[in-house]
Amino acid sequence: MCQSGSKDNDVKIDNNSEEKNNIIKRNTKEMSFLSPYLLLQKCEEYNNIKKKRNDSDLLRRRYNSRMKSGISRLYELQPDPYDATQRKCMRVCVFTEVKNVNELMEMVRTGEIDAALIKAELVVEPFVLLAAANRAVHQAAHNRMSTRSLAAELIYSLSPTRNISESLINFGISEGSENLIVCVFDDAKGSKMVKLSKKIKGKPVKFEKWMQLVHYPSIKKLYNLKSSDLKSEDLCDIIANQIVSKDLIC
After folding, report:
1. Where does this protein reside within or beyond the cell (predicted)?
2. Who contacts 190 (Cβ-Cβ below 8 Å, separation ≥6)?
């Protein structure tokens, strides 16, 4: 019995020694994190990571230099306030002095560009554009689009007529277009607009320039407006009513 007891004691002693060794190892490991050398090493690693991140941000800013901050604007669309599935965002940018219109038209035709390229002189102000955009999103949500894409539906929605071809020709990009309103859906971060701007050989301008591009005689003709309508403070409402009312025409 004494022998067996001594064996038990030996085992206990061994267990205690193992526990002590484990404690020492843990303490040593914990102390290593407090080592000045390791702290210095961690700081150097952090500084290297920070430097790489700053270099990456610098390259990104240089790459996106054409799209300056504040040039484009982001709008939130939700035609039905009770239906969250209709919620979308649309980024808008105005370009002037566009030189490669034919090239852009071909890219739109082949689907390389998924954006609405609209004649800037035919849109009075952002309110009219947003009215058309909300209509396009609403039609898409209910599977009632008259065109094949949301971008084309936006252009079609700007027109007071129900003739699709005529609407796209009148308001969309065409030969001789120099000033464009570019609209991209689902581009909250702006990456799509930046990528698209690389394909447009034109000058992105601030929204204040938009109002200077409007050609009222053309707007009067397209919307069958009176001269008094052009001077009215409710001009945008008059045009928006025509945009919406075309869905009520049988």
Report:
1. Nucleus
2. 67, 72, 74, 91
